[in-house]
Write a structure and sequence with these properties.
Rossmann fold, alpha/beta, binds guanosine-5'-diphosphate, 48% helix, globular, binds magnesium ion, six-stranded mixed beta sheet
């Protein structure tokens, strides 16, 4: 069976505001004499959009950029450029024009009218990819919610579109259209309410399961999409996370137990990849999927050292972490794919980021050093844990008192909920104790 792959044209505008990365590079202390990385960055302003389009299954025919200070209200790009796009689309059988920016419903309508091809904006493209990659029920519901919330204000646009195809312009434009639109909106709103409720239920359940494993030191592997997070997880734990040269192959978090060195245990979670300008609806709706990040004791921030625009990607991750309220969390910066660059380049990045670790997940290089650094964190980071135990379990209660400092105790329905500060080692002991007792009960 052959699957038809859409032929797409990518469009972006370049302005100082759209590409803060160049300042970002400086902010991150990238050596200005080190031109190769910077060049890669500036040569490919649409590199990320291209990756996204390929991930969505499209064939990228060409990329067009326009230097523009302020977006055009009607078309986003200038009207001369629109005419150019139309000509190109006609000549090259383009199925869709994809913009690197978010467009207003009006801009999409105007562009489609002029170019006579489907026009897709950045958020729509990302939502589309998320929809095809969501595997768990939780991820699927979250994507559907994000899609509906994004389309609701655009339903008018969708309907006008449809009425034109069905009834032609001019005939019965208003009456049935408005009624239909009202109905569509109501259906969409009802569905949104239902989705929010279902997601809320799942989150509650999720919270309970994460509480149960709170005795462990939790490490969240995060970073820009395609950085090699899943590859690292596999290299460290010998498990089988999906490793793909695509964006967003991991939409659902996977968690694995890992022994960095003897007597130390940690839970490693592989998370969804971050991306520059992640639509804010998505950050909100993926909150639960990113719960591992929010609850982690340590964030392993993985960066692809070979890909252009390191500064840009570091900023993208910073921004999302800020939105998640996690910017203060302990973080270890890990540069991956060192097998792909030459030693000189490695040295330069090493000087710029002296506190980071350099690895190759693929060739299993630098993993021991990484483990040592992580153990340092585990050893020095005392964390707050929560346990729920039966109020009658005096033995366990005194065991806890012995190991750490209890900060609060709340009694409810015969259970005590205890918040306690424990060293990771003590935490591991408590977890071991609980596990042993669970086995005894069986
Ligand atoms: P994720 O999206 O961050 O989980 O990235 P993946 O683990 O799926 O890896 C993305 C791509 O990078 C895959 O094609 C991997 O084979 C490749 N990759 C991962 N780590 C390395 C590495 O250390 N060196 C090289 N050369 N490629 C790597
Ligand atoms: Mg992955």
């Amino acid at each position: 069976m052959t699957v038809y792959r859409e032929r797409v044209l990518l469009v972006g505008t370049i302005s100082p505001q759209r590409f803060p990365s160049r300042d970002g590079l400086l902010t991150y202390g990238r050596d200005s004499t080190h031109v190769s990385q910077k060049d890669r960055d500036e040569d490919e302003p649409l590199a990320e959009l291209e990756q996204l389009a390929i991930t969505a299954g499209a064939i990228v025919i060409d990329k067009i950029t326009q230097k523009k200070q302020k977006p055009d209200v009607a078309y986003y790009i200038g009207s001369g450029k629109v005419a150019e796009l139309k000509e190109f689309a006609d000549e090259n059988d383009i199925d869709a024009v994809i913009f690197d920016n978010d467009l207003s419903p009006g801009q999409i309508r105007n562009l489609e009218d002029e170019i006579k091809t489907k026009v897709i904006d950045r958020t729509e493209l990302i939502l589309d990819i998320f929809a095809t990659h969501a595997r768990s029920l939780q991820a699927k519901l979250q994507v559907e919610l994000a899609q509906l919330e994004y389309t609701l204000p655009r339903l008018k646009h969708m309907w006008t579109h449809l009425s034109k195809i069905e009834g032609g312009v001019g005939i019965g434009q208003r009456g049935p259209g408005e009624k239909q639109l009202e109905m569509d909106r109501r259906i969409a709103r009802d569905r949104i309410t239902k989705l929010k409720r279902e997601i809320g239920e799942i989150n509650k359940h999720h919270q309970r399961t994460t509480e149960n494993r709170s005795g462990y030191f939790n490490i969240a592997i995060l970073g820009y999409t395609n950085a090699g997070k899943s590859a690292l997880m596999n290299a460290l734990t010998g498990t089988n996370c999906l490793v793909e040269n695509k964006l967003f192959s991991t939409l659902d978090t996977k968690t694995q137990l890992w022994n960095p060195v003897n007597h130390y245990k940690a839970l490693l979670s592989d998370t969804v990849g971050f991306i520059r300008n992640l639509p804010h609806h998505l950050v909100a709706s993926f909150n639960a999927t990113l719960q591992e990040v929010i609850e982690a004791d340590l964030l392993l921030h993985i960066v692809d050292i070979f890909q252009p625009g390191i500064g840009q990607r570091l900023q993208a991750v910073d921004k999302v972490l800020e939105e998640l309220g996690c910017s203060q969390k302990p973080r270890l910066l890990v540069f991956n794919k060192i097998d792909k660059i030459d030693p000189l380049e490695l040295q330069i990045v090493g000087k710029e980021f002296p506190d980071s670790v350099f690895i190759s997940a693929k060739e299993k290089k630098g993993l021991d050093k990484l483990a040592d650094r992580i153990v340092e964190f585990i050893a020095k980071n005392e964390t707050l844990s929560t346990f729920s135990v039966s109020a009658g379990d005096g033995k366990f209660l005194s065991y806890l008192e012995e190991l750490g400092n209890i900060t609060s105790k709340t009694y409810r329905d015969g259970m005590v909920r205890i918040k306690i500060r424990l060293s990771p080692h003590a935490k591991a002991k408590v977890t071991g104790y609980l596990e042993a007792n669970k086995k005894k009960d069986k």
